[in-house]
Amino acid sequence: QAQNGQDQQQVGEEEGAIAVSYTTLDSLQEQGIAANDIQKLNDAGYFTVESIAHATSRKLTDVRGLSEAKVAKLKGIAKSLVPMDFKTAADALEDRRGICMLTTGSMELDKLLEGGIESGSITEFFGEFRTGKTQICHTLCITCQLAVSDGGAEGKAMYIDTEGSFRPKRLEEIAERFGVDPAVALENVAYARAHNSEHQMELLRMAAAIMSQDRYALLIVDSATALYRTDYSGRGELSERQMSMAQFLRQLTRLAEEFGVAVVITNQVVANPDGMSFAKDSTKPIGGNIIAHASTTRLRLRKGRGDNRICTVFDSPTLPEADAQFAISAKGVCDATE
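Predicted structure:
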């Protein structure tokens, strides 16, 4: 029964293509859900059966035109299609075999990350300006399009830019380095400029719609926090800011789990006034505990000598705390130069 509606869109013609793990809402029509109800769900930002299964009933009753009885029916169908019970650790290990690792372009950095940026979870890069956050994002836009054997995920990239630092010209240079046709590479990157924090949230709803239509491997938000810093100011609006940011990050987690994309966010830092000024590092990432808990892997970037940058594992469920050096060149992120 669960297989009928599975949208197992195959990517590429070759064997071993990546199967898509979500089911679109159209499969609910066979279960007796009316087409106009599916349209209402789409309008509210729900595009897959998984998104219904993962949402609370209270959230679903907020969708205009859905009664409690309808929501109960929807939840029942979604539960039967999406496995949400306990499973053994052995099964969980099997599930994790489907995870792709995106190469960062630097062998040292990939080694530190045990293969690269993990799909299906949120990776956060934070550091001062000029530490290579945006350059890593640009490089990943190209590497995610490579074959799995080359450290890619054979999917498209989506880039939400909040600071106006996206440069398509850079993508062309990086594509040439990886042997990808620059024209094709640029076609495979969807880009949006977010102008305020509400718009940033709205773009995630659009992202879900686009991802349910096509194979995406990567979602970048550069930077996830910049607009929240300016839209909310002062202590008085702090809790409101954190709640709004928590909703945004929750949505990012949902996209990562639902569509299996690698989510990469960048974060700014703030001077830590209670840190001693002569301490080795007196800055800390902004967003506090909310971002700390939402990000699966947190990586700290700082400047090294010349074009070199240093990446430190700040927090991760699997990676040991260690450093790696990489460099930034005209062709994106590469190995450190002596």
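Summary: The radius of gyration is 21 Å.
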